[in-house]
């Protein structure tokens, strides 16, 4: 994909950076939407992860939309996600096995949905964020009265 052929049908605070990332990775709003929907389709069919999500998510349409915005911000630097992932995860009853499973599903769906460069771009970021979230969760579980540590 050349920059001339990328149409910017995506809200972004940094259009030049977003276009450059789209060209470099082959990622686009449509690809990220497809990835998010396929990924959470697998999560909802997964014996390890499904119970954690089922206990928290009451409106899947809202969660999926939030996650498309999140991944657009992370992967294409659109600046559109304004949530706080750390406090969303620190109260969850999750451990290394949940993170391993989450990453295994994410890697498989990313490779299946994206170009090799796009998959690598997403997987690197997912692994980094999962690591930070895991440390925050462990820290909250070992000292539940301490405020959550913020990693981003
Ligand atoms: C052990 C693996 C994980 C589990 C079980 C899990 C579960 C959840 C649940 C249940 C929520 C909804 C929280 C709520 O609305 O009350 C959530 C939100 C979210 N998760 Fe995860 N998650 C996991 C890993 C990750 C990873 C690795 C990432 C990023 C790479 C991530 C990104 C997010 C984001 C951005 C939100 C929305 C936070 C917000 O803005 O409210 N999660 N997750």
Automatic annotation (TrEMBL):
Keywords on record: Heme, Iron, Metal-binding, Transport
SUPFAM superfamilies membership: Globin-like
One of the record's GO molecular function terms: oxygen binding
Origin superkingdom: Bacteria
Name of protein: Preprotein translocase
InterPro entries from the UniProt entry: Globin-like_sf, Globin/Proto, Hemoglobin_trunc
Residues where heme binds: 63, 131
Segments forming a coiled coil: none
């Amino acid at each position: 994909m050349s920059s001339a052929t990328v149409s910017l049908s995506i809200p972004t605070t940094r259009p030049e950076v977003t276009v450059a990332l789209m060209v470099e990775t082959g990622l686009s709003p449509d690809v990220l939407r497809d990835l998010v929907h396929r990924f959470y389709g697998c999560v909802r069919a997964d014996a390890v992860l499904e119970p954690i999500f089922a206990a928290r998510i009451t409106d899947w349409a809202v969660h999926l939309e939030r996650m498309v915005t999140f991944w657009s911000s992370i992967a294409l630097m659109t600046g559109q996600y304004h949530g706080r992932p750390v406090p969303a995860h620190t109260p969850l009853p999750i451990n290394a096995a949940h993170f391993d499973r989450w990453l295994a599903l994410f890697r498989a769906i990313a490779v299946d949905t994206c170009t090799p460069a796009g998959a690598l771009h997403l997987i690197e970021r997912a692994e980094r964020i999962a690591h930070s979230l895991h440390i925050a969760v462990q820290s909250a579980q070992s000292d539940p009265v301490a405020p959550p540590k913020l990693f981003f």
